[in-house]
Amino acid sequence: HKQLRLVICENDTLYGFIDLFDYDYINRRACVGIIILKQHRNKGIGSKSLKMIEQHVIDHIPIHQLYANISSKNSESISLFKKNGHIEVGDKKDWVYYNNKFNDELLFQKILFK
To answer: Which helix H or strand E contains 60, and what residues bound it?
Structure first.
């Protein structure tokens, strides 16, 4: 199904989820999404999880880049991805409709191999 969904946990503690989806074998890219439960944010778990998923794809999947689509209003996710080497490459205007209005979505990407 071109997707991998993983639980971020340690022992019996659930921290969140991380997904790879929309895997494109020909162009060697996949989208990455991450959710850290509110009570576990700002503890480095998101950064550690992104690094682990990057290493997983480097070791096991023929991949050139990861990308993420993030709401322009989601400052925590924007900060997380920027801090981990993802570069903002696009702004999709009025891309997502929620809360009774259209909202922008930012496109971030990280090239894993040149």
So the answer is: helix 45-60
Q: Which of 90, 87, 3 is nearest to 53 (CA)?
A: 3
Residue type, 56: H
On whether the pTM is more than 0.90, the answer is yes
pLDDT score, position 15: 98
Task: Give 87's contacts (C-beta < 8 A, 6+ positions apart).
Answer: 108, 109, 110
Say how many C-beta atoms besides its own lie within 10 A of residue 58's C-beta: 12
Give the three-state DSSP class for 39. helix
∠ Cα 8 13 19 (to 5°): 15
Q: Are 59 and 65 in contact (CB under 8 A)?
A: no
**Integer Cα distance of 100 and 63 in angstroms:** 37
